[in-house]
Amino acid sequence: MGAAFLTLLKRDLTLAMRRRSDWLNPLVFFVIVVSLFPLGIGPDGSLLSEIAPGVIWVAALLATLLALDGLFRDDFDDGSIEQLLLSPQPLPVLVLAKILTHWLISGLPLVLLSPLLALLLQLKLQALPTLLGSLVLGTLSLSLIGAIGAALTVGLRRGGVLLPLLVLPLFIPVLIFGSSSVAAAATGFPVSAQLSLLGGLFFLALALAPWAAAAALRISAES
Amino acid sequence: MTDVLLQAQNLSVSRGELTVFERKSFTINTGMLFQLQGDNGSGKTTLLRAICTLIPLDEGELRWRGELLPAAREQYFAEMCFAGHADGLKGDLTAVENLTSTLTEHTPTVIECIAALEKTGFTGRDDLPCRVLSAGQRRRVVLARVLLSQATLWVLDEPLTALDASGRELVGKLIEEQVGSGGSVVYSTHQPLDVSGFPLQTLALSD
């Protein structure tokens, strides 16, 4: 079981390294969206630093969404989804490997780049640790929750349009607690409550999403 | 000594209003060759996908070694291998990389993969990604995957597609070996497949 998890993880990471657009596109999108705000609003330092948590979080959420449609799409198109479904290994474990790959190539680069963008928006330095922590927990949750939507829509020809409508409402709690934790940290308030809730959301998603996505994949493959 | 592998009773599958096939019953034993016959659109692929539990049944039941499917999925999948219309190969990986990333019980080593590729007459270059290979060469990689699975039951949908004369001969030979060593093969084909010395069961599907 662990071996199959690692085999799939290694295969998908190799594929991502050979097709750089898969992980570069969301990252470039994230950077461009965030850097549009100072251009659009003007170089008003206090206003920018006030909206910075929300801007970074919304941009990270949209960038995650951008990469989400490809999570199962390639496997579905080339038929390797059948091999995945017919594997003797438990499907939720394999789905979890795919979700982890998705996070490693789309979520982790966002987290690593976010301090730079926080400086661009003049976010207070004291909020940086909270920004990183909340983004790690938050983007992991977004990848897990989004995988359910991606699995449900992968069988549809225009699934890419339906996917945001399905998953964005489910992303809202993560967005609320994520951006409010950063905002609280910037004003010097304690953030343990928001981070605990984010952690709770992550564990809830980890416990449920792989099973739900696996069941959704089986339904999508019936066509 | 023959064992009963897969029992199908009164299988019916429909798509919306349209009935694809109705009340098909058959039994697949070890050492058995089972061919699906029928015109285009008669439901061969649907039946093959149904016995892989990829498509839900409207009626009827499937049993693997006496256990009801899909509950006994994991034992079933450990002993069966399916090669469908889509080859399931990753275009950006080489043939060997594709084979070493199969999710079977036992992950094949590189040496086993190269041996299997040689056996299927794969002559493409090892360092090229699969997307630049010809359809016939890709088919041979799929055959190598089937061989490496060491499965008891092979389910092959049109295994002869895109293969040249030597390839068709090879498929016949591989199927003979599989059936001769106590395995079973279920396949659909339009072209005559040259397999001799084994009882051939056929199931005809019609519109």
Features:
heterodimer; A: 223 residues; mainly alpha; 85% helix; B: 207 residues; alpha/beta; four-stranded antiparallel β-sheet; 6 helices; 9 strands; globular
What coarse outline of chain B follows from CA principal-axis ratios? globular
Estimated structural class of chain A: mainly alpha
Oligomeric status of the shown chains?
heterodimer
What is the number of strand segments of chain A? 0
The second-level CATH architecture of the domain at 4-91 and 153-204 in chain B is 3-Layer(aba) Sandwich
Largest interface: A-B, 28 and 30 residues
- Secondary-structure element sequence of chain A? HHHHHHHHH
Unreliable runs of chain B: none
Q: Helix tally of chain A?
A: 9
Radius of gyration of chain A, whole Å: 18 Å
State which percent range the strand residues of chain A make up: under 5%
Radius of gyration of chain B: 17 Å
Helix and strand pattern of chain B: EEEHEEHEHHHEHEE
The helix count of chain B comes to 6
Largest sheet of chain A: none
CATH class category of the domain at 4-91 and 153-204 in chain B: Alpha Beta
CATH-defined superfamily of the domain at 4-91 and 153-204 in chain B = P-loop containing nucleotide triphosphate hydrolases
* Beta-strand share of residues of chain B: 25-35%
Q: End-to-end distance of chain A, in Å?
A: 28 Å
Task: Give a verbal description of the structure.
- The complex is a heterodimer of chains A (223) and B (207).
- With 223 residues, chain A is mainly α.
- Chain A has one domain (2-220).
- Chain A contains nine helices and no strands.
- Chain A has helices spanning 2-18, 21-41, 45-68, 70-78, 80-85, 91-120, 128-153, 159-186, 192-220.
- In chain A, helix 2 packs parallel to helix 6 (91-120), helix 7 (128-153) runs antiparallel to helix 8 and helix 7 packs parallel to helix 9 (192-220).
- Chain A is elongated.
- The two termini of chain A are 28 Å apart.
- By secondary structure, chain B is α/β, with parallel strands linked by helices.
- Chain B has a domain at 4-91 and 153-204: Rossmann fold (3-Layer(aba) Sandwich).
- Chain B has helices at 44-51, 73-79, 95-100, 110-119, 135-148, 165-180; strands at 4-15, 18-29, 33-37, 59-64, 67-68, 80-83, 153-157, 184-188, 200-204.
- In chain B, the strands form two sheets. Chain B has a five-stranded parallel β-sheet with strand order 6-7-8-3-9, with helices on both faces. A four-stranded antiparallel β-sheet of chain B has the order 2-1-4-5, with helices on one face.
- In chain B, helix 4 (110-119) packs across helix 5 (135-148).
- Chain B is globular, with a radius of gyration of 17 Å.
- Chain B starts with a strand and ends with a strand.
- Classes of the chains: A mainly alpha (223), B alpha/beta (207).
- Chain A binds chain B through residues 3-4, 7-8, 10-11, 14-15, 18-19, 74, 77-90, 94, 221-222, and chain B through 52, 54-56, 74-75, 77-78, 80-82, 84-93, 97, 100-105, 107, 129.
